Amino acid sequence: MLQKLIYASQAIKPVDTGSLQAILETARIRNEKDGVTGFLLYADESFLQILEGEEDVLTATYGRIAADPRHSGLRLLQRVPISKRRFGSWTMGFDLPDTKALGSLPGYQPSKRYPLVSPDLVRNGTVAELMLGRYALAA
Ligand SMILES: Cc1cc2nc3c(=O)[nH]c(=O)nc-3n(C[C@H](O)[C@H](O)[C@H](O)COP(=O)(O)O)c2cc1C
What we know:
By secondary structure, this protein is of the alpha+beta class. It is 35% helix and 29% strand.
């Protein structure tokens, strides 16, 4: 069954462009093989990622991501069945969002530290979904 999974995490140290590229390169090669699609946001040492794929594949992918020493404190915000993908053309899209601009999202107060693991996002997966939804393809 097709599912989507959204999680937030803290980088263990500031991630430079080269390291982000390395993460994306691995993710894209692997996701292409696995039929996983999604989007990754990075801001001030925090990540927010959505993954779409078959249930067993998502379990394996999330397991590997959770074990990755480049980040920690993963919080699973949402994992639900979907009827179709919203990020179908991205083996892993990426953006560095302007966290000040994110303040305009209803229900979201950006925190100074780790903005993408803000308690607003963690308490309410729909805020995270809204944030990532800005990048989704129009249906
Ligand atoms: C923030 C972040 C996002 C990642 N996203 C993915 C992803 O979408 N797909 C994936 O296969 N690996 C992703 N990775 C990399 C995995 O953690 C892991 O290094 C990779 O899947 C290779 O695993 P392996 O060395 O056990 O084969 C991500 C890592 C980080 C830190």
